[in-house]
Amino acid sequence: MFVAQELRKKNIAEYLLYMWQVEDTIRAFDCSLRRIRDEYVSRFEYTEEQKEEEVDWFGNLIRMMNQEGCRERGHLQINKVTMQMLIELHEQLLQSPKFPFYNTAYYKVLPFIVELRNHGANKEENEIETCFNSLYGVMLLRLQKKNVSPETAHAVKEISTFIGMLSDYYHKDKAEGLKFE
Q: Per residue in 59-91, pLDDT tens?
């Protein structure tokens, strides 16, 4: 909860990737709040009050996962809404002549997106979702200490830069409001 709150304020893309990791962490503990409290939250260097807040947060997420039918796979509605906001902002940025650097970054990563889709990514998902799925997949590979090919590392670096730019625009839009016309 504390990490999520900080990430949401600073970098919406990192927040979303973190929330996907939290969903997977909950699944790894079989959606058991007791196990999450005893085997996961107990390891954090938090005060007892902070640990209880964290456990409550996980409890709410577990309840939502059960209600929304994503105990085994998929994403919580709150995360889907965040993704949808990023997709909508992406489309606004592309359609506006006021953001040429964003357009340039997009066209730089477009070949990687096309290649990801040609190699098994869901062809129906939005390009931004494809980017996030590739970033999350490589993050999981690295956590498992598995090799990432130089080509994949290069693609992920470019995608990461692009998604970072989208995240920056998201926060600027929330703080100041972007003018698209």
A: 999 999 999 999 999 999 999 999 999 999 999
